[in-house]
Write a structure and sequence with these properties.
- The protein is an alpha+beta fold and about 260 residues long.
- The protein has three domains: about 10-70; about 75-185, no CATH class; about 190-250, no CATH class.
- The chain contains eight helices and seven strands, in the order ααβββαβββαβαααα.
- It has helices spanning about 25-35, 40-70, 100-110, 155-175, 190, 200-210, 215-225, 230-259, and strands spanning about 75-80, 80-85, 90-95, 115-125, 125-135, 140-145, 180-185.
- A three-stranded antiparallel β-sheet has the order 4-5-6. Strands 1-7 form a two-stranded parallel ribbon. The chain has a two-stranded antiparallel ribbon with strand order 2-3.
- A hairpin with a 2-residue loop joins strand 4 (about 115-125) and strand 5 (about 125-135).
- The longest helix has about 35 residues, at about 40-70.
- The chain is flat, with a radius of gyration of 29 Å.
Length: about 260
């Protein structure tokens, strides 16, 4: 049997120019359009292009993350309560469970092209959880935490391990998104404490103000405080300010009518 394989000089290989190269580094595009490639040149182009695409996806990630941060809820209400007695003391606290957190953030994540995932592993007796925040353009960041199984409340070893994993999933997600949770406000709390801060109430007030043509920047400029720090007393000040503002506008319109 004869061997008819032909040895081809790489220098003689011509690459036809591609009409559309939307995401190529300018230098890589120039070399490809020229058409003369050697294996060494091709390897350098691939390396250049990989680094360029990584840089572009990282920039896209940071821009989208800035917009995501503006869109995410400032606080997430706690919706679960733990209360049990053991070994001479009682444990009682509230927290936002994972479904509650996901319900609060998924709309914003989806809008801005993000998704989250978790990877679980073990380190000795510790459970290790890594939360990954990924963007549709390819870049991602991670947050990892670990802790031993939670055996409080007469949990089995398996239940304790799952409890810790769920806890770490919540904490890594909150951390990577820069969020905090807050106890749901008592309906009577604003009346009891003028310094009480209710973010949901403040957002509702803002929506009413916007319907009157008053923007957030104008209100924050009046109070010299951001929305997330408005107290019940501040809301009263805003109400008086809006009332005075409406009176001034009415007087101005009446004066214009007389002239």
């Amino acid at each position: 049997m004869s061997d008819n394989h032909q040895i081809i000089d790489p220098k003689s290989v011509k690459i036809a120019p591609v009409q559309e190269r939307q995401n190529l580094h300018p230098l890589a595009k120039m070399i490809l359009d020229k058409g003369d490639l050697t294996p060494d040149t091709l390897e350098r182009i691939l390396d250049l292009q990989e680094r360029y695409e990584a840089s572009q996806s990282r920039k896209s990630f940071e821009i989208a993350r800035a917009r995501l941060t503006e869109d995410l809820p400032r606080l997430i209400a706690k919706n679960k309560k733990v209360d049990f007695a053991g070994k001479g003391h009682r444990t009682s606290y509230t927290y936002a469970d994972l479904p509650q957190i996901m319900r609060s953030v998924i709309p914003s994540l989806t809008t801005h092209g993000f998704f989250v995932s978790w990877a679980n592993s073990r380190d000795g007796c510790d459970e290790v959880v890594t939360c990954v925040l990924s963007h549709r353009d390819g870049h991602s960041v991670e947050n990892t935490r670990q802790a031993p199984p939670d055996t409080k409340g007469a949990k089995s070893q398996v239940q304790g391990a799952q409890s810790t994993v769920t806890y770490l999933q919540r904490q890594t997600l909150l951390s990577i998104l820069g969020l905090v949770t807050s106890d749901a406000p008592d309906a009577d709390e604003p009346k009891k404490n003028p310094a009480f801060i209710d973010i949901n109430r403040n957002l509702r007030i803002l929506q009413r103000l916007k319907k009157r043509g008053i923007e957030l920047q104008e209100v924050e400029g009046f109070l010299l405080k951001t929305l997330d720090s408005w107290t019940a007393k501040d809301i009263e000040q805003i109400a008086n300010w809006v009332r005075d503002k409406n009176d001034e506008d009415k007087e101005h319109e009446e004066a214009k009518g007389e002239t």
